[in-house]
Every structure is written in structure tokens, then in C-alpha cells.
């Protein structure tokens, strides 16, 4: 039976650790921020139109996807943090990172949804989880997270 020495075992462990770290780093793309006007059109992909007139198709995780397809946020100036997946395609970072903000009265705001019957806040559009009444769009200061 072939046994490794202590030094050989340590080398194998360090090589394995380096491989795991390298593979983990491959999934981490550097975040970029894009700004522009959010354009939501029924039956078409949602885009952010930059100040230069460039239209960038945007998408995100499931809750962000719902927000990006909510007609009530169309026309807002937005700031989205994420990464490009193609020349004109942008993936917004996961919703829990608050990567999608809108500019309202000069300030950046989080997009939230509120049920005034149950006093329940949601971070994606849709019916209230309690009473099923449609939630209303409510923009909130990012520092005022409930």
C-alpha cells in the first residue's frame, strides 16, 4: 500500500484548496452599474435606455424579473448593479442585494409593494400573501428597510 508523507499530503491539500478557490472565483463576475430609463413593454423584453440612447435588455432573479415586468415602474430613471451577459444584455444582481433602485425626486429609492389592508411589505409585485388584494407600488429609502 502506498502512503503519502506529511509534506506530500499537505501539497495535495493545498492544490485542492487552490482549485476550489479558483472555481469559486470563476462564478463571481465583477459588478457594474448601469443607469437610464426603464422601459417596460408588453410582449417585449424590458430595457434600460441609457443617456446615450443605447437600449440594454435587463433581467434578474425571479423577484427582480417580476419587478422588471411591472408596468408601474416603466419610465423611471433606474440604477441597476449586475453584469453584462452579452453586448446589450444585463443581469441584475439578486434582489436581496438591493441592486435595482429608481430615482424619485432626486433620491435613489427601493422598489417595494405594500398591502394597506394587512400592512405587509413585499419586494415583488403581486397579490398580498395574506388577503390576496393587489399590492401597491411604494418607493422607499434604501436605509429604511423593514
Characteristics:
146 residues, 19% helix, alpha+beta, 9 strands, OB fold (Dihydrolipoamide Acetyltransferase, E2P), 2 helices, five-stranded mixed barrel
How is this structure best described in words?
This protein has one domain (32-140): Nucleic acid-binding proteins (OB fold (Dihydrolipoamide Acetyltransferase, E2P), Beta Barrel). The chain is built from two helices and nine strands. It has helices at 6-26, 62-68; strands at residues 32-39, 47-49, 55-59, 77-86, 89-92, 100-104, 107-115, 120-122, 136-140. It has a five-stranded mixed beta barrel. A hairpin with a 4-residue loop joins strand 7 and strand 8 (120-122). The N and C termini lie far apart (61 Å).
How would you concisely characterize the structure shown here?
This protein has 146 residues and is an alpha+beta fold. The chain has two helices and nine strands, in the order H-E-E-E-H-E-E-E-E-E-E.
Amino acid at each position: 500500500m502506498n502512503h503519502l508523507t506529511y509534506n506530500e499530503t499537505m501539497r495535495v491539500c493545498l492544490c485542492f484548496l487552490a482549485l476550489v478557490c479558483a472555481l469559486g472565483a470563476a462564478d463571481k463576475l465583477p459588478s457594474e452599474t448601469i443607469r437610464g430609463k426603464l422601459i417596460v413593454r408588453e410582449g417585449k423584453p424590458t430595457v434600460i435606455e441609457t443617456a446615450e440612447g443605447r437600449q440594454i435588455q435587463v433581467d434578474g432573479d425571479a423577484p427582480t424579473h417580476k419587478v422588471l415586468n411591472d408596468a408601474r415602474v416603466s419610465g423611471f430613471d433606474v440604477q441597476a448593479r449586475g453584469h453584462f451577459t452579452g453586448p446589450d444584455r444585463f443581469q441584475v444582481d439578486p434582489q436581496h442585494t438591493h441592486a435595482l433602485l429608481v430615482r424619485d425626486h432626486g433620491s435613489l429609492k427601493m422598489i417595494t409593494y405594500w398591502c394597506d389592508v394587512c400592512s405587509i411589505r413585499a419586494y415583488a409585485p403581486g397579490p398580498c400573501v395574506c388577503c390576496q388584494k393587489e399590492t401597491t407600488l411604494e418607493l422607499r429609502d434604501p436605509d429604511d428597510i423593514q
